[in-house]
Structures are given as structure tokens and as C-alpha cells.
Amino acid sequence: MASIFHSGLSKDFSQILTKEFDDYNVIIQVGENQNTQEFHVHSVVLRARSPYFEKAFSSDWITKKNGIITFSKPNITPIVFDMILRYIYASELDLTKHTGENILKLLIASDELLIEELFEHVQDYLIEKRSTWVQENFVLILHTISKFTSCKKLQNYCLGSICKDPQTFVTSEAFPSLDKNILTIILNRNDFQLEEIIVWDSLIKWGIKQTPELENKNIQDEWTNKDYRDLKNNLSDFIPLIKFLEINSEDFYRKVRPYKDIIPKHIYDEVIKYYLVDQPKLFRFIESKIIKPELTNIICNWIDKKDPMLIRTEKKDPQYKFNLIYRGSRDSLDANSFKKKCQGQIASLVLIKIQQSNKIFGGYSSIGFNSIGDELLFKDNDHHYYCSSNNFIFSFENSEDTQNMKISRVKNHSRALLKWDTGFNFGWSALYTYGQKLVVGHTHGYYEDNLQIDAIYDVEEIETFIVTNY
Question: Boundaries of each TLDc domain copy (predicted)?
């Protein structure tokens, strides 16, 4: 069996860099302007560790004088190239001493020099060890890596993180500087769920940033016809992506109508017809990654004990607002986080997405889930229940299901909600969570048995909303 002495080998090779031996045969000049440095290295080492250098040093176009190859890499800074050489010669890399920006430059340089192991390590390091810096610099990172197909892992991490908290991103100071192609990718993602009027406001700010002559005009009354044309051109690819019918009439009047000149006439006329002529099917926005906004029409009708497919209009029906207070992927998918976020005697809606399935479960409690108060408490031997006549549980086959949804209303009002240490528990065990599991079934007659499921699922996502009238 052969003995391996990698540590000693790495130590000795690192001395080649630090002791400046005189048998080098390559001079590499890196950096530009005032930030330049010259490195004396060995072609055999670089060719063995980098396919890029293997090809470069064997080409006819390299410059060679007195047996010394001279090579220039102005796009790589001295500090980054020093890290690369330490990796190449001694497999040494201490990223804790470097800024996030320099680590990002190292990622791009390692990709250019075809050092795959280093590239993968740096990409994983940014995601796992410098996630805070990454989240503070989404725009810089996305602009830097957008042209590199090999950076998909980091790009997907950035885009996924943005979509977990899109409002924070679109209202950030960096958002108006976002590249158009990247903005297009974000707006077309299925998991980019944001109230449409916020998307519109953000796009207007982005468009103004791309139209320099408008940045110094604080009052819209000062805009010229050319200003509107320029803004329209900058936003032309995005206007068709806006779901204007999901913007309520007041927001449309105050925030969209002033920019009607940048909206294609056929789109604007269609929206006006919707507000003034058609009987609108009212879809109240819900900031959910689990269901589409259209399903809120069904949930609102269930709350009012009406036909789920009834068209709700602003004049005839009570209006509900859904305020997100808990999301497992954001706040931690565990009982303590749920209980901390979902406290108080207030009407609440919970949605649950299960793993490896499109199926969605949910429940509405007119009294909330935790810290409800003893005045609603009903004691039955060793079990304590909370009373409600309006609770119900339900299921959808998928995030857009309007045909096969099912609902089970509470039957035994004194046992609507079990006082439960982990998450929530409708009835005794009609619908409840423990750990990251969801149990459905065993209504015990406390709820209707319309769901007709007796199963345990792994939870992928949970969301809770406070439901209020307005």
C-alpha cells in the first residue's frame, strides 16, 4: 500500500511562491491602471493545474524573450491572482480574510482559467458562508455572473432568495439599477409572488432610472411628450406582464392612470372596460407561494358560507384582506416559530403545501390558532378545546384548482380547535401538524368528513394569514 504525503508536498510547493526561486520561466502581469503586479511562476505547474494555461502556453501567439514567457491578464486583480496561485501551487485557500467582492472576482477568474474544483468551491462558499453578503448584493452579483452559464447555482440561489422576499428587493435602492435581462427573468418566474400594484410602482421607478432625463424631474407635470415616449420604450417589454385586473380601482386611478400614455391603447381600454362595464370577478390579492390569487374568491365565499363559485363584487360582498404573518421557508418550519408568529384571538387562514405533490390543504379559524384565551376554552377530560361555529378545513388539488376543491365545516362547535402544543389542530385530529408532518383525517364527528383522506404527509411549506374586513 502506497504512503501519501500530501501535506508535506503542499508545504514545500508553497515555498516556491514565497522564496522567489530564480528558475521561473513565466512572468504574468495582472491588473490595470495603478493596481498592477508582476508574478514569476512556472509554466509546468500552471499547465498541470489549469487547462487554460495548458492551452495558452502551447500557443504560437505567446510572447517569449530570453526563454521567459510574458503574459498579461489585466482583467484579474493582483489580490485575486495571488489567491489563485496559492491554490495552484499549494492547494491553500483562506477566504475568511477576503471581502465578498474579491471572492466574487475569484469565482469569475477561476471560471475563466478553467479551474473547476476552485470554481465549485468558491460558488458553494458564497452560498453557504457568505449568504448575508450575497443577499445584500444581489444586483452586483447578478450583473457580474449573468454572462457566465457556469454560475447557474449562484444565480439560482440569488433569484430564489429574491422570490422568497420580493418586496424587500423591489423596494431596495439597488433595484432601479437592475439589468433589463435579469429583471425579465425575475418577473417571469412562477415563484415571484407580489401584489401587482407594488410590481407596477417598482417598474415605474426602474423605468425612470433607465431614462436619465427624468431623474431630475421630480414633478410629473414637468414631463414632455418625449419623456413619456422614452419611458414607454424602456418599459415596453414589461407592460404586457402586468396583471392590471388584479389592481383595485383606487390604486389604478391614483397610480396607474397618470401613466396611461406609456400603456398600449388596447390594454388600457380593456382595463377601463373591466372597471366600468364588466361585472368584475373580484380576486383579492394574497401574498402566497402556495395558491394563486384566484382561489381567494373561493375562500372568501367559504368564510361567508356562500356558493364557492359565486362572483364577488365590491358593492355586494364583504371584502377581506389577507396579511401574511408566517411562512415556514422564511421564518423556520417548526412549531415554536409558528406559535410565536401566529398568536392572538383573530381570524386566521393557514395553507399547507405537501412535498412531492401538487395537493394543498388548509384551514380557517375565526378565533386564530394560539394564545386564544380561556374564555373560549371547553374542557373534556384531559383535552382542552376552543369553541367556534365558523371554522372549516379544506383541500385543493393544485394551486389553481376551482373544480375539485373540498371543504369540511366544523360540526361540534365546542371542539373546533384543540389546544395544541405544536402548530395547530382542528377538532382533535381532522387537520394538524407535528414537527414537519401534516396529518389529515380522523374527524371524530367534530368536522364534516368531506376530505375523505386518512394520511400523513411531509410538509414543504406553511403560510398563515390574518383575515380582516375592510
Answer: 289-468
pLDDT at position 342: 87
Dist CA 70 CA 67 (whole Å): 10
- Pair 324, 457 in one domain: yes
Cβ neighbors of 200 (< 8 A, separation 6 or more) are 242, 247, 255, 256
Q: What is the DSSP letter of 97?
A: G
Q: What's the pLDDT tens digit per position in 31-51? A: 998 899 999 988 888 888 899
Give the pLDDT confidence score for residue 349 in this predicted structure.
Answer: 96
Residue listed under C-alpha cell 407561494: 289
* Structural domain for 113, as ranges: 96-190
Q: Distance of alpha carbon 406 from its chain centroid, rounded?
A: 30
DSSP-derived 3-state class of residue 186: helix
Same domain, 363 and 233: no
H or E segment at 409? strand 406-409
Of 92, 107, 142, the last residue of a domain is 92
Cα distance between residue 357 and residue 51, in whole Å:
44
Q: Which residues in the chain show pLDDT less than 70? A: 1-22, 59-61, 278-285, 311-318, 371, 373-376, 380, 470
Distance, in Å, from the CA atom of 268 to the CA atom of 412, rounded to the nearest integer, reads: 51
**Residue 47, φ and ψ in degrees, nearest 5:** -65, -35
Cα–Cα distances (Å) from 125 to 62, 120, 149, 359, in that order, read 34, 9, 18, 35
Residue 439 lies in a domain: yes
